[in-house]
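I'm stuck. Please check this protein.
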Amino acid sequence: MKFTGSQQYVATQDLMLAVNAAITLQRPLLVKGEPGTGKTMLAEEVAQALKLPLLQWHVKSTTKAQQGLYEYDAVSRLRDSQLADLDGGERVKDIHNYIVKGVLWQAFTAEEPVALLIDEIDKADIEFPNDLLRELDRMEFYCYETRELIRAKHRPLVFITSNNEKELPDAFLRRCFFHYIKFPDADTMKQIVDVHFPGLKKELLTAAMKTFYDVRNLPGLKKKPSTSELLDWLKLLLAEDIPLETLQTSDNKVVVPPLVGALLKNEQDVTLFEKLVFMNQRGR
């Protein structure tokens, strides 16, 4: 099993090496990078390329590690026990009816190998990664309610993404293979755009790319626009049939691009960019 890229995802050579290293080592692949650089999409594309079903666990600030294993629905069992006279209480007798299987349980007991995505792990409590150490390392856990050991039939291919919102514990990092997705350079970005917008006119692409990097490279920007935001912006430019002349000037001065709200997401950054444009216009 080896990942060699896909038609829908532009994977750099070092990224493909990282995926295959994680497969060889049978370790989770921890992927970090700016939001919008394709971390989640990587898991989806690798799973599709390797013909593996993908189970996804999108972590929130309230997510607990136990939810990835299983949850015991004691409330439903209590309610059913109070209604036991109606059906003889057969459902209540079997505690398995009240075990809600999490994504790790599903991945461990799948009949065929699967890929597992634990998305944005840094959103959860700081103890969240530590609470999964044993399960991800030994590929097993114990269900106390049913008194059974849940052991992986096949080791899943695990992807873990992080936006670097908080540091992850050293013990957790030791068990992962790490890769940081760098922001794409201009040539790689053109390949990415070509995948999503094949046949885009060269002149429009050149002007849009220049404007995008002008915005992104603005000093002091609070939130730099990402790859996904560039793709959204291009989609809008095409949908609204924005003329090429609005993206560039004859002397290559910086201008406020149309539909800039797809690239800049807060008022401070918009003000900062408008100030730059004003200074450029005065300097003509």
About this structure: The mean pLDDT is 88. The longest strand covers residues 157-162. The CA atoms of residues 47 and 115 lie 6 Å apart.
